[in-house]
Amino acid sequence: MTRCPIMPRPQLITLMLVLACSHSSQPAPENRSLSGTVAYRERMALPSGAVIQVQLSDVSVQDVAAPVVAETTVTPQGRQVPLPFELNYNAGKIDPKRIYAVRATIRSEGQLLFTTTTATHVLTQGNPSRVDLVLIRAAAQSAAAGGMLSGTKWKLEDLGGTAVLDQPQATLEFPEEGRVAGQGSCNRFFGSVQLSGDSISFGALGSTRMACLDAVMSQESAYFRALQDAERYAIDGPSLLIYSRGTDKPLRFSRTGS
Asked: Which is nearest to 123 in space by CA: 162, 94, 85?
């Protein structure tokens, strides 16, 4: 039987130390920080229970819900704007070829008070790692958005990543502020809508009770579910995007009239 030579103890200890150092030399994820301030132009004090949330998101792909890379919460505790923030993120998750943006909101008791309305690009492609964010009062934005949507008509082009039927068309209309109507596919529907910042929510929708082909009824059911689960919206050029809870891609509408 061939016996393996026994390594002298000092050499064994040296080998163990080399292996340990080799293992510990593996690069660990590098933590970095994005910093800046949050402010708004209105002359009003923050409520005592206000909370600021800052999010770093990957916005490389349009028309999909932007994945959140990192986020942080700032509690003013009586301080007033401008308020500093520091958002820590894992540099290993940042791809230099992609586009990242930071956004912020201020809420009090669950109600949105202020929000960013534009994407502030950061970190990659020559963009900074420090930004000063100026938020817009949600009530003012809601009124502006309500006025902008009021009287408009839209045609559904994409149902959360699913192609839609050319005929009959599914539509969405805002006949007046706070009201919504449209063609579900088979049936005409109507109801209420509430806008707050970039949030959108539909009240209970009523509709006619016609019966159509199975494919048409299936699309209508999916459309109604998506509207009832709607959480936020955006206007992207000629398109209206509505993001629903539990989906990665939005409903996409094209404008048909006003």
From this structure: 94
Do residues 88 and 32 lie in contact, with contact meaning Cβ atoms separated by under 8 Å? yes
- Which residue in the block uniquely carries the two structure tokens 């919206």? 233
The residue type at 226 = A
Identify whether the C-beta of residue 256 lies closer than 8 Å to the C-beta of residue 239. no
Alpha-carbon span 43 to 40, nearest angstrom: 8
- Distance of alpha carbon 198 from alpha carbon 119, whole angstroms: 13
Please work out, in degrees rounded to the nearest 5, the angle formed at the alpha carbon of residue 78 by the alpha carbons of 75 and 37. Answer: 55
CB 59 within 8 A of CB 99: yes
In tens, the pLDDT along 117-168 reads 778 999 999 999 999 999 988 765 555 555 577 888 999 999 988 899 989 9
Q: Could you give the CA distance from residue 222 to residue 170 in angstroms, rounded to a whole number? A: 11
Residue 220 dihedral angles phi and psi, to the nearest 5°:
-60, -45
Three-state SS letters, 164-214: CCCCCCCEEECCCCCEEEEECCCCEEEEEEEEECCEEEECCCEECCCCCCH
User: Residue 214 is which amino acid?
Assistant: D
Entry pTM: 0.52
